[in-house]
């Protein structure tokens, strides 16, 4: 009889130890925190047309569309609409600072141009809201390329593509 009781106790101990270790191994490990990169969202800009001035006269127009990767948390506290701010910065770079000079045959430094937009906007806001600038379109249409068509309507020749654009993700929110 003692052998049967000892065999029962032994079976219970083995079963309890087996259940304990199976539950211990089956539970998921605590989640490892990934890099604490701020959540970003794409703010899609409007199409803009910026005049190219040379010696006080309009020589052509820059036609562009830019999107911005912004820090979602910092962008929520902005007082100024993102569209107005980005448009003003683009006018400043293209007209005021003449970052793109078409009288020279050099290519546009795309990375420098994007960095200048990012730095200028972040400087005005006083914080790093813009993480990246996406150029969807940047073309130049010279004044001589606009010809008078029949019936008083202008006939446009194809624009000169300055930068081959990149499309923002489909979940891009329109600019406010």
TrEMBL record:
<keyword id="KW-0282">Flagellum</keyword>
<keyword id="KW-0969">Cilium</keyword>
<protein>
    <submittedName>
        <fullName>Flagellar basal body-associated protein FliL</fullName>
    </submittedName>
</protein>
<feature type="region of interest" description="Disordered">
    <location>
        <begin position="149"/>
        <end position="176"/>
    </location>
</feature>
<keyword id="KW-0966">Cell projection</keyword>
